[in-house]
Amino acid sequence: MTSTSPLARVVRGSGPGLLLAHGGTGSIEGNYGPILDGLAERRRVVGPDYPGSGRTPRANGPLDLDTLADQLVATAVEEGLETFAIAGYSLGGPVALRAATRHPERVTALMLTATFAHPSARMRLLVEDWLRLLRAGDQEAAARWTTLVAAGAPYLDRMTPEELATLIAYARDSVPPGAVDQVELVGRVDVREDLGRIRVPTLVISTALDTMATPYHHRQVADGIPGARFAELASGHLPFAEAPGEWLGLIRAFLDAQA
What we know:
With 259 residues, the protein is an alpha/beta fold.
């Protein structure tokens, strides 16, 4: 690959390659931060931030899935990875799937968490509400809504009022400049035709308490990929906050089995 990547990136560790793809309105540190050290213990981890997240400037126009997938692969190659597994979270799942079908010579395995191939009617309704809140500029209302929708009910139910206020404040303050662009891409994603073309070992991790990208979507992805493994995690849409140790364990065990 001769193209260059405009994406800022996190690079850690050494060993076999692992490329990370984060979720919409997230970032590498925001979505993978609690498990980065564990992932990098035996692997060279490259985590690019999408346009408008982290240190990557916002794009000049709408995000394109093919372009984003190519940019992620280019970032990994620039960091010395000739081949690599990809871990994709939420929107990062379709990004990883498209990267695997466009660059099959590079991708060795896939781990897809809390993800989807195409938003259902319910999820499209959710995306429309999310975009309405983001565009309205009421950051407090958007933060309260995303906290309620994204976090699993048991995780929220156990919180003290102070803990909940802290979580809402984090959600409010961490919205990236490219949030609208990324959520618009969520609404446009359709990688259903990619599923049957995947030829690498794949693990689909279903966040079983997820009301954002529901288990309906996770099962659709797993059922469409030949030979895909399916695992459940007792978490809502925020496994990095709700069950980071268990999430890391599933990813590492799957990667170790491919060695």
